[in-house]
């Protein structure tokens, strides 16, 4: 079954993932390590006047995940099978 077809509500997804009930920006970098200037993109999002919570899915790119984790205020995910929840 396709997880996207049975995704939870936004409220349920946020609760299950521990996300705040506010604007969330999900950055997904794909499965091939694609993502030029990712650090700068995330820094720019963090400075936005709406102050979104930033979630970045880095897949199997451990070095990028560690780098983004050091920025603070960013949830850097490795590979996850919960993308449908994050999209919700």
Write a short abstract of this structure.
This protein is α/β, with parallel strands linked by helices. It has helices spanning 10-17, 38-47, 62-69, 83-87, and strands at 24-28, 53-57, 74-77.
Task: Provide structural commentary.
It is a single chain. This protein has 88 residues and is α/β, with parallel strands linked by helices. The protein contains four helices and three strands; from the N terminus they run αβαβαβα. It has a three-stranded parallel sheet. β2, α3 and β3 form a beta-alpha-beta unit. It is globular and about 35 Å long. The two termini are 17 Å apart. The model has no long low-confidence stretch (mean pLDDT 86).
Radius of gyration: 13 Å
Quick one: how many beta strands?
Answer: 3
Give unreliable regions as ranges.
none
Query: What proportion strand?
Result: 15-25%
Strand order of the largest sheet: 1-2-3
Distance between the termini: 17 Å
Helix-strand sequence: HEHEHEH
Q: Please state the structural category.
A: alpha/beta
* Helix run count: 4
Sheet having the most strands: 3 strands, parallel
